[in-house]
Amino acid sequence: MRTKEVSVLKAHDLKCVKGSTELFSNVHFEVQSGEALVVEGSNGSGKTSLLRILCGFNYPAEGEISWNGTSIDGHESYQQQISFIGHASGVKLDLTVLENLIFAQRLVGSDRKEEEIKEIIRKVGLFKQRNILTRKLSAGQKRRVALARLQLEERQLWILDEPLTALDRDFVTEFEIVLKKHLEQKGMLIVTTHRELVLPAAQMKRINLSN
Amino acid sequence: MLSALLTIIRRDLLVAFRRRAELMNPILFYVIVVTLFPLGVSPDQEFLSQLAPGVVWVTALLAALISMESIFRQDFDDGSVEQLFLSQHPPTILILGKVIAHWLITGLPMLVIVPLMALLLYIPQQAIPTLFITVLIGTPILSLIGAIGVALTAGLRGGGVLLGLLVLPLYIPVLIFASGAVSAAIEGLPYSGHVAMLGAGLILALILSPLAISASLKISMS
Amino acid sequence: MWAWFHKLSSPKYYYEWSGKWLPWLGGLTILLSAIGLYWGLVVAPTDYQQGESYRIIFIHVPAAWMSMFVYMVMASAGFVALVWKTKISEIVVSECAVIGAVFTAIALVTGMLWGKPTWGTYWTWDARLTSELILLFLYFGVIAIYSSIEDKRVAAKAASMLSIVGVINIPIIHYSVTWWNSLHQPNMEIISDKPSMDPSMLYPLLIMAMAFKVYFVWVLFMRIRNEIISRERATKWVKELVTAS
């Protein structure tokens, strides 16, 4: 569940190397509860790599990342504060929307009633499709299942890699409302996106990896 | 923790049942390969029953290899591997759950066709219980070790053959002790030593494999 | 001591340090091999049972010992690579895989050449040869996984993982093969490297074993240096090195 305290994610002097290519170096930032960090950069500049490093799936070639003062390296409870959506949506194609969400929220330790889950499904506009296999949904609909998962997991730090791809315009607005609410509730957001995200300017920070 | 284990097992079983048609494939493969031996070598009863333990187990290794692919491939594609490491529960427990689910789908059905194998290969009745026991203890070991190989090679080209190259040498002790047990039983000799070795192997695999699989998945994710 | 190890994990420092050792290693290899081979092939007496053909053990046995030893080195380096993530340990893993496979192949071939005059057949499924063969497969597995991953740092980690899993399995495989062999061929315990050997044969054997060890270190250093130059080619110190020569 959400903590009432303020959390801080700090990155210092990050360098990422893939094979023999240096993707980015000298990256610094600090994000606090209630703030969003928008990661920009051209294709191949390492946006996805940075996000994956922040999730703890990979190590930077150089630099440190700390969560509330402790390094995230080996910090198991850090990973349990994260909700992540990568290029793949993190949902099982052979399960229905409802089944996916029931299992997903059990894996984060909650045990909500089916009614609550159906309510979230309704909010992302998939109520009619709740018993349809995720495989049969469109790309945009699959994304929405992932976004429903986000809201069910109720974690502090949202790390989203191009979450808006394939979403139709009206749903983008819906989603921006969800993001805003997350920030208002002292959540943190790190996101890469090709589209312009409408978020309160006071809470938005940007970094560009192409420098 | 137990509930997390059960959740993961239920989820993976549900996913597998949605693809019911594919569930039978490893079993069918197994039966077909076993029939190749009398066809290719000799249908002579005495010969076959001597060859039987080896045939049963070599084929089991190959069938295990083929069915191993399914354990992590989908998870890498749909992003579930990442979610595994972000979950509230220790990844090793979830991984163990996945392997258990996989074994329930691929290893356990082998028990059902043991009587058929005994028939086709002229395995004498007194050896059939031993055959059951070795399949029951041996196939989970194959799943546990094979999963390490899949975790390292998922997403790489050269898929199945590369997996075989990595994993088959590691399967050799299981082959030796399992087929040795059945051979001994056929000849009326004691086989408890072999079974004990298999049991020890299973315990060792249960303790060490989830850690190895977890580390391998992390390597493949980077 | 730890500080020195830490320094050694930097490719540049390692390159300079290992360069100083190379001529000594090479010289020692040649010296030991010359002594060992002369002693073993010329001076040592003819074997009572096997005549002259036994002399191949002066190559075969050290090669077999090295095949196991190199795997241990590879697995240890693999452990270091996974825990401390140093570049040098990663290179050691991939180089040891190749060198170890070569030693294993030499052990197998010399074992087969010994087999022909001794038992009349090139191949026999005795415990030793079979274990060596399986060891060769384990090496092939490590080499295969290393070459199938493009990013060489990730490839080294995967290879490290596999070699650690392998090293745990090796005693199990060895035990099971020995047991299997004793069932089927109760009388064939052929390759005995236990020193129930006459000293006149034992000493050259031990010298050859030393020679093989030094040779291993020599070749390993050379291969590591090559790999360092290749990987670090974009850095300043490598560019200066190349233009200076």
Features:
heterotrimer; A: 211 residues; alpha/beta; Rossmann fold; 2 domains; five-stranded parallel beta sheet; four-stranded antiparallel beta sheet; 6 helices; 31% helix; C: 245 residues; mainly alpha
Characterization of the model:
- The complex is a heterotrimer of chains A (211), B (222) and C (245).
- The longest helix of chain A has 16 residues, at 169-184.
- The mean pLDDT of chain A is 86.
- Chain A starts with 7 loop residues before the first strand and ends with a strand.
- Chain A has 211 residues and is of the alpha/beta class.
- Chain A has helices at residues 47-55, 76-79, 97-107, 114-123, 139-153, 169-184, and strands at residues 8-18, 21-32, 36-40, 62-67, 70-71, 82-85, 157-161, 188-192, 204-208.
- Chain B is mainly alpha-helical and 222 residues long.
- In chain B, helix 1 (2-18) packs across helix 7, helix 4 runs antiparallel to helix 10 and helix 9 (128-153) runs antiparallel to helix 10 (159-186).
- Chain C has helices at 2-8, 11-43, 57-84, 87-119, 127-148, 152-184, 199-231, 236-244.
- Chain C is built from eight helices and no strands.
- Chain C is globular, with a radius of gyration of 20 Å.
- Chain C has one domain (24-42, 54-189, 196-231).
- Chains in contact: A-B, A-C, B-C.
- The interface between A and B is medium-sized, with 30 and 26 residues.
Biggest sheet strand line-up of chain A = 6-7-8-3-9
Q: Which radius of gyration of chain B do the C-alpha atoms yield?
A: 18 Å
Q: Under the CATH scheme, which architecture of the largest domain in chain A would be assigned? A: 3-Layer(aba) Sandwich
Mean pLDDT of chain B: 91
Shape of chain B: globular
Structural class call of chain B reads: mainly alpha
Q: What is the string of SSEs of chain B from the N terminus onward?
A: HHHHHHHHHHH
- Give the proportion of residues in helices of chain A: 25-40%
CATH superfamily of the largest domain in chain A: P-loop containing nucleotide triphosphate hydrolases
Which range does the strand content of chain B fall in?
under 5%
| Major interchain interface with per-chain residue totals | A-B, 30 and 26 residues
Distance between the termini of chain B: 27 Å
Backbone shape of chain A: globular
Query: What is the domain tally of chain B?
Result: 1
Q: Alpha-carbon distance between the termini of chain A?
A: 37 Å
